[in-house]
Amino acid sequence: MDVCREHGKNSFGTFDVFDYTNQTFICPLDKGYYYVEGYRPDETKWPTFIPGDYKVDLNITYKGDTLARLAWYLTLIKYEEPEDS
């Protein structure tokens, strides 16, 4: 996925993230330390279905030291509402 192109289209509501970060979005992003604090994604701005396998990496640092590294692997599948009986 071309992150810069998707941001330009405001895919996934990416414009909203920058109200909660120390970064002004300029493509390409420079290497550095960025934070996002207090942000909650607006699920109404996400596509209704994005199937596939994904990996999410999260590195938690404090004053340059790595405190934790987390990796989540997930598979998104289409959810079907149960029919009323």
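The record above closes out task 2.4. Task 2.5 opens with a second protein, given below.
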Amino acid sequence: MKLLVTVFLVLSFCELRQAEDGKSSSSSSPLQDSPPVSEGAFSASSPQLSAEETYSAHMPEHLLCDACRAISFQMQQYLEKAESKWSLAKKPGALLSESEYVDALENSCSQSWENYGVKEVNGVKRFAGPGLKSQESMSVMMTGGPWPARLYMMCHSYLGESGEEQIYEEHRRRPGGLEEFLCYGAKKACTRFTHTKDRIKVKSLQSEL
């Protein structure tokens, strides 16, 4: 009889220890049952470039307006820097000499353009960089690649089409007005881009009718 009571007590004690060990192990690792941390809340990826955007020697049409605005901003910055550099040696409001404004504009086009790139905003590729309105987006800006060479060529094409003298005259006539002079107006980059978007909208509406 005593032997049976002893065996019963031993088995009961073992079961009690196993139950306590199970509780302690579950309480000591609370992360086991917690849900995984969500990824992608602030994830971002580089824009996927088309064949034209990757290999063309020229600026794609849908990026011409942004590129023009970036170029006009840099021209303005370089001219203002040249004017401030000589302001102490000349009378207030004095004009730069021809060689001075030509050098300033040439330097603005010949820079590295490393601060500019392309990113995708709401499914649309846009240029980003100094002088361009920042887009609230977590997208990654893609710099380097073909963009510096395209900006270089496009900038020098403006010097060839309009001439340094006329660009500087516009700068002096309307401070901050180079963007409007270079990018807007008949057959200018931003006007062409707007008309292209309008044509796409019209074609889309016609296809729906």
